[in-house]
Amino acid sequence: MNAVSYAAQAVPADWPGGYWWHWLFYTVVIIVFVLVMVMGAIYIERRGMGRMQLRYGPNRTGPFGLLQPVADALKVLLKENIVPNVADKIVHWLAPVIAFTPVLLIFAVIPFQNGALLTDLNIGILFIVAVSSISTVGVFMAGWGSGNKYSLLGAMRNVAAVVSYEIPMVLAIIGVVIFTGSLSTGAIVDAQDIPFILVQPLGFLIFFIAASAEINRSPFDLMEADSELTAGFHTEYSGMKFAMFYLVEYAEAIAMSAIITTIFLSGWRGPWLPPWLWFIIKTIIVFFVMVWTRATLPRVRIDQLMALAWKFLFPAAVINLFVSAIEVLVWPDISQWIFVGVNIAVAVIAIGVGTKMFKPGWGKVAV
Amino acid sequence: MTTALSAKEIVSKLSAEFPDAVKEAGADSVLVKSASLPAVTEYLKTADGLKFDYINYITAIDYYDYFEVVYMMTSTEYNRSVTLKTRCETRNRPTVPSLAGIYQGADWQEREVYDLMGITFKGHPNMKRVFLWEGFDGHPLRKDWNK
Amino acid sequence: MTTTQEISLQTEPFVLNMGPLHPSTHGVYRMRVTLDGEVVLDIEPMFGYLHRGIEKLMEERTYTGCIPLTDRLDYASAMGNNLAYCVAVEKLAKIRVPERGEYIRVITAEMIRIANHCLAVGSMLNDAGALGTPFFYLWNEREKLYDLFEMLCGQRVLHNYIRIGGVSQDLPDEFLPALEKFVPQLHKFINEFEFFLKQNEILIARAQGVGVLPKDVALNCGISGPLARASGIKRDLRKDDPYSVYDRFEFDIPTAENGDCYDRYRVRMEEMKQSLHIIDQAIKKVPGGPFRAKVPQIIRPPAGEAYGHIEGPKGELGFYLVSDNSIAPYRCHIRSTSFINLTALRQMVKGWKIADLIVIFGSIDITMGEVDR
After folding, report:
1. pLDDT of B4 higher than 70
2. Maximum distance among all Cα pairs of chain A, rounded to whole angstroms
3. Is C5 a domain residue?
4. Which of residues C322 and B27 earns the better pLDDT score?
5. Which residues of A touch C135 (CB under 8 A)?
6. Is the pLDDT of residue A3 over 50?
7. What average pLDDT does this structure show over C340-369?
8. What is the pLDDT of residue B6?
C-alpha cells in the first residue's frame, strides 16, 4: 500500500487510470523500445562496420538487409540449447535473466520526453549507477556456471573492469549533479539549457570511456575478446540463452547511449522535431560513435585497462569534480557559457598533461 | 653468396682438433662419427674463423643399410655453410647424440626426425613425437614402413 | 613469487587448452598454456593436426608431380613454395632457367611476398583486437593481387605456376600493364595504411616492447625471415645467397633493433615497399625469349643431393632433395620456416599475459600447413 502511494507521486496528476495503467503502459513501451532499438542497433552496427571495413554488411534479407536482425533472432531462437555437462545448471540458466533485467530497469528513469518516463525518481542517477552494475553479477554467474576456463577468465576481467570503472564514472556524473543540484534525470534534462557536453567536456569524455569499458565496447571489449577468449563469458551459451546475452550486450549499449543523451546531450530537448524523436536521434548518434571506435581501435590489455582507470581517468575525474565544485560554489549566478570556456580549457590541459604523465606500466612479469 | 665451405678445408681444421672424428669427406659434406658429433659441432659453432651459428636444417635419410642424419649449418658472420653427416647402422633403435644443447633450433627438428624416421637423439630433453600421436605404429618416413 | 601474493590467498596455476579450434591460432595450432591468473607461466605447443605426410607423398611422385604438393604447404604463399622446390630440383638436375622465366619468377615471388605480408599484418592486428578493419583493408589489396595471379595462371590461391626450368605458361599480354598500374596504387595504399596505424597509441601499447626476441636467441633457434630481421639479424637470402636473378635488383633489407611485435609489423610493412620496388624494376627489364627451358615432363636427375633455399615471405624456405636417378625423389626434406620460427615462441611469451600471447603468436606469422606438413 505504502509502495503504491509512494510511487504514485511520480505519476503525472492528469494521467488517466492512475498508477497501474501508467505502469503497464510504460512497461510495454520500454520493452518494445528496447527490443526495437536493439534490432536497429544490430543493423546499424553490422551495416556501419561493414561500410567502415570495405564490405557491404548484411544486405540479403529484406530491403537493404533491414530484416537481418529478425532473421538472426529467429535463427538463434530455433537453435538447440546446449548446457555443458560440467556446468552448474541453475546458475547457467539464471545468468542471462539476471544480466538482462537491470538493463530494462535502467530505462525506468530515462525520460523519453518531458515527463514521459516510468517514474521520475528523485535519485534517478544513483538508481542507474546502482542497477547497471547488477548485470555484472549475471555475467559472472555465466562465467562461473559454464564450467569453462575461457568463460571464467572473461567473467573475471569483466568484474575487474566494472569495479574499477564505476568510480570514474560516478565521479563524472557528480560533476553534472553539482551543476543541476538534483539527482533526478528529469531535473538534469531541465537544467541543460546548454548541453552538459559543453559545460562538462572532461566529465563527458570520462563518462563515455568508462561507459564503454563497463558495457564492454571496443577498445575495452576484453571480456569477450574473441581473438583471445573465443567468446568470453558466453562461450558455452547457445540458442535462446545466447540470444539473451546478445540482447543484453546491445541493450546495455543502447541504455548507456540513452544515459549519455540524458546527462550530457540535453536528453529530449531540441528544436523543430518532436522531443521523443530528438531523444532517439541523439541515442543513435552516441551509439554510432561507439560503433565507430569499435571499428577503429585495437583492444587494450587487462593491465592497461586497469591502469587507464586508476592512473588517468580517476585523477582526471577528481580534477573535474574539484573544478566544477569551485565554479558552482564561488560563482553560482553567472552565465554557464563562461564555464564552457573554462572547462574546455581545463579538459584540454588535464588530457594533455595526463597523457604525458600516463604510463601503462607493468607488462612483463618475471616467472 | 653463401659459399659451401669446401670439405677439404673443414677436414683439415677438424682433423687437427679431433683426430679420429672425421670418417669420410665427400664433395661438399663431411661424414662425422656420431659419437664425436656434439664436440665437432660445438667447435664449429664457437671456433674463430668458423662460427657456424645458425642451423639450417636437420634431417635423416633411410638408405636401408643405414640411416644418414644430415645437418646443415651456416655462419651468418662469414656467410658460409657446412653440411655434416653422420650414420647409424642399426635399424633397431638407432641413436645419435642430440644437438639440442648446442642449437636451440635443433630441439624440435630432432623431435621431428625421431617422429618420422625413428632415430632417437640421446641427451634430448624431451624426446617425444611431434606430429603423430603417441602410439602411432612405426615411423612413416622409413622406406619399409607399411610395406 | 612476489610478496603481495604471499600474504594474499593461496593461488595455484591453472592449465588452459588453446586450440586446435581457437579463433586466433591460425589454423589448427594447439598449445597447453599454464596460467597464473592472466599471466602465462609456460606453454607447450602441440602439432600434427594438419599432418598430411607431404614428405612421404613426394617420394612416390615424379619431380614435376610434386609441385602441386608444395602449394599445399604454406597455402598463404604458394608461389614461394613452388619456387623453392623448383630451385632445389634445378640445382639437383643442373637445369638453367631462361632469362624471361627468371624475371617472371622474381615478379611472382615478390607479389606473393606482399600478399603474404598483407595476411600476416592483418591477422596480427586482428589478434590485437582491431576487429577486422585493418584486416579487411589489407585483404582488399591481397584480393587484387590474387586477381592478378588468376590472370597469370588461372589460380588464385594454389598457383602451381612455377615449373622445373621456368614457369608453366608465358605472361598474358594484359598482365604487365595491369601490374604496372597496380604497383603505384598499392604503394599509395601502404603509405595510407601506415599513416593510420604507425602512431596508434593502443597498437604501440600492445605491441611495443612485447614479446622481445633477443638477437642471440633468434640466431640460436635458427629463426629467419622478417622475424629474425626485426631482431636485428641482417640476413636475407636474396642478398646473401642470391638465387634466380635477385643479384640484378636494387633493394634494401629492412631491419629493426628491438625484436618486439611492433618491429615485426614495421619490418613487414617496409618489406612490402621493397618488394614493390623490385617489381617495379623487374617489369621494366623483363626480356623476351623462352619462358621455360626444354625440360622433359619426367626428369631423372643424377644420383646425389641438393639443398635449394629461397627467402620466402616467412623466412628461409628450403628443400633438401636426394635423388637415386629415378623419376621420383628418393627423399625430400622440407625446411619449413613456420615450424622453426615457432621454436622461440615459448621464450617470447613467458611472463606476458594471454592477450600478449595471442599478439606475439600472430606476429610470428605461421601457416599450419607448413608447420605440420
Report:
1. no
2. 69
3. no
4. C322
5. 53
6. no
7. 87
8. 66
Segments forming the whole domain that contains residue C131: 10-372
Per-residue confidence band for A8, with pLDDT thresholds at 50, 70 and 90 = very low
Amino acid at C240: D
C91 in a structural domain: yes
pLDDT at A81 over 70: yes
Query: Region A67-86: what's the mean pLDDT?
Result: 86
- The answer to whether the Cβ–Cβ distance between C309 and B107 falls below 8 Å is no
Query: Mean pLDDT across chain A, nearest whole number?
Result: 82
CA dist B115 and B92 (Å) reads: 15
SS3 letters across chain A: CHHHHHHHCCCCCCCCCHHHHHHHHHHHHHHHHHHHHHHHHHHHHHHHHHHHCCCCCCCCCCHHHCCHHHHHHHHHHHCCCCCCCCCCHHHHHHHHHHHHHHHHHHHHHCCCECCECCCCCCCHHHHHHHHHCHHHHHHHHHHHHCCCHHHHHHHHHHHHHHHHHHHHHHHHHHHHHHHHCCCCHHHHHHHCCCCHHHHCHHHHHHHHHHHHHHCCCCCCCHHHCHHHHCCHHHCCCCHHHHHHHHHHHHHHHHHHHHHHHHHHCCCCCCCCCCHHHHHHHHHHHHHHHHHHHHHHCCCCCHHHHHHHHHHHHHHHHHHHHHHHHHHHHHCCCCCHHHHHHHHHHHHHHHHHHHHHHCCCCCCCCCC
Q: How, if at all, do strands C166-167 and C162-163 pair? A: antiparallel
SS3 for B57?
Answer: strand
The whole-number pLDDT of residue A5 equals 44
**Residue C2 within any structural domain of the chain:** no
Burial A294-327 (b: 16+ CB within 10 A, else e): bbbbbbbbbbbbbbbbebbbbbbbebbbebbeeb
The phi and psi torsions of C155 (rounded to 5 degrees) equal -120, 150
B56–C309 CB contact, under 8 Å? yes
Task: Give how many domains chain C has, as a whole number.
Answer: 1
Number of cross-chain residue pairs from A and C with Cβ atoms under 8 Å apart: 100
Q: pLDDT digits over B120-129, tens only? A: 888 888 888 8
* Chosen from A297, A303, A355 to mutate, greatest number of chain C CBs within 10 A: A297
Chain B CB contacts of C335 under 8 Å are 56-57
Task: Establish if C3 belongs to a structural domain.
Answer: no
- Residue C1 CA to residue B145 CA, distance in Å, equals 50
A19 Rama sector, left if φ>0, alpha if ψ -120 to 50, beta otherwise: alpha
Question: Mind listing the pLDDT tens digit for each residue in B72-126?
Answer: 888 888 888 888 888 888 888 888 888 888 888 888 888 888 888 888 888 888 8
Non-local (6+) Cβ contacts of A328 within 8 A are: A178, A179
What does the pLDDT look like over A257-300, one tens digit per residue? Answer: 988 888 888 878 778 888 888 888 888 999 999 888 888 888 88
pLDDT value, residue C7:
62
Neighbours of chain B (3+ CB pairs under 8 A): C
Please state, in angstroms and as integers, the Cα–Cα distance from residue A171 to each residue in A165, A318, A323, A355, following that order.
Answer: 10, 7, 12, 20
Amino acid found at A335: S
Question: Helix (H, G, I), strand (E, B), or coil: what is residue B120?
Answer: strand
| Neighbour-count burial of A27, counting CB atoms closer than 10 A to its CB (0-12 exposed, 13-18 middle, 19+ buried) | middle
Residue C251 confidence (pLDDT) above 80: yes
Look up residue B138 and give its three cell numbers. 612405426
Residue A262 and residue A110 in contact, taking contact as beta carbons nearer than 8 Å = yes
**Phi and psi at residue C166, to the nearest 5°:** 155, -140
- pLDDT exceeds cutoff 50 at C262: yes
C12 CA: distance to closest CA in chain A (Å): 14
Report ipTM for this prediction. 0.87
Are residues C53 and B140, on separate chains, in Cβ contact within 8 Å? yes
- Residue C41 — φ and ψ, nearest 5°? -90, -40
- Domain CATH for C293: 1.10.645.10
